[in-house]
Amino acid sequence: MLLQVNELRKTYATGFEAVKGISLQVNKGEIVALLGPNGAGKTTLISTICGITNPSSGSVFIDGYEISKNFRDARKLIGLVPQDITLEPFEKVLNTINFSRGLFGKKKDDALTEKVLTKLSLWDKRDSRIMELSGGMKRRVLIAKALIHEPRLLFLDEPTASVDVELRQSMWDVVADLKKDGVTIILTTHYIEEAEAIADRVGIINKGELLLIEEKASLMQKFGQKILKVELQKKLKQLPKELSEKNVKLSDDGLSITYIYDTKQKKTGITKLLSNLSNSGINLRDIQTDQSSLEEIFVNLVREKVE
User: Fold this and answer.
1) Counts of helices then strands in the chain (DSSP H, E)
2) Per-domain residue ranges of the chain
3) What is the rounded distance in angstroms from the CA atom of residue 299 to the CA atom of residue 45?
4) Residues 6, 66, 57, 210: is their CA dihedral positive or negative?
5) Which listed CATH number (3.40.50.300, 1.10.8.60, 2.60.40.3710, 3.40.50.2300) goes with 3-221?
6) b/e map of 36-65 (b: 16 or more CB within 10 Å)?
7) φ and ψ at residue 173, rounded to 5 degrees
8) Which helix (DSSP H) or strand (DSSP E) does residue 33 occupy?
9) 144-164 core/surface letters (b: 16 or more CB in 10 A; e: else)
């Protein structure tokens, strides 16, 4: 286990509780996505784990080092890519990266610097000033700064914020490559597709609470619903009485029927539905199923917590 968080709390002087007793364990080589809306407490949680913000209570261990008692040893193991772009605009990319490595007491390593910048498609920009780069390139520089001291645990706080769709996909590829190199990654995001695309496990945070953390596949199976879509050979004006269940709907064009069923139930009701269709003389053209998306699961979980 690389990271262990025990009952972490952060309460500000105003009485606002940004982090409410969160416990979390992350194994080496994992990608964990912390998913939640803006203001959910994701950034505060990361800042507290990294020792930037002092916790009100609880503890954080990184590879056995407690962050408040062994800050230097723990911090050397951490790379942090903040949400905001905080770079010296007049400095060159190469100098920016080398300076960051020096901050951690490590000697200059030209071969490593070239490797990191090349992996992030920045090598040809090494002599460019930060102010000359696009927003996406600046974010890549932040990742390079976080990686140059060879951390074992990388935090990405909203890594693709304000990044276009094409570059976002490219960033996901970078994260996947980092995992192959053995880097453990925790990212915060409010982009559902980001968590769904690259994470091994997904944690859902809302109002300072970690509602759950599960393997992505297990989460979707446990909380997901499936949608059965039946395409019809002939148009229907309305559903027969035998099919008038709340989970069965006729499309506006009358050429298909959708049926929502719970994957957790032993009996899905599909057999009964198909039997009723046959008994009603309705001929089918095609049948297909779709799994609920992570976005639907997230919205349902947050709604349940509010209610």
Assistant:
1) 10, 14
2) 3-221, 225-291
3) 21
4) negative
5) 3.40.50.300
6) beeebbbbbbbbbbbbebebeebebbbbeb
7) -65, -40
8) strand 31-35
9) bbbbbbbbbbbbbbbbbbebe
pTM confidence score = 0.75
Alpha-helical (H) ranges within the chain are 42-49, 71-75, 93-103, 110-119, 135-147, 165-180, 192-198, 216-223, 270-279, 294-306
Would the CA dihedral through 136, 159, 306, 226 be positive or negative? positive
Alpha-carbon distance of 67 to 137, in angstroms, equals 31
pLDDT, tens only, 225-282? 678 888 998 888 888 887 777 678 888 898 998 887 776 666 778 888 888 888 888 8
- Of the chain, the end-to-end C-alpha distance in Å amounts to 35
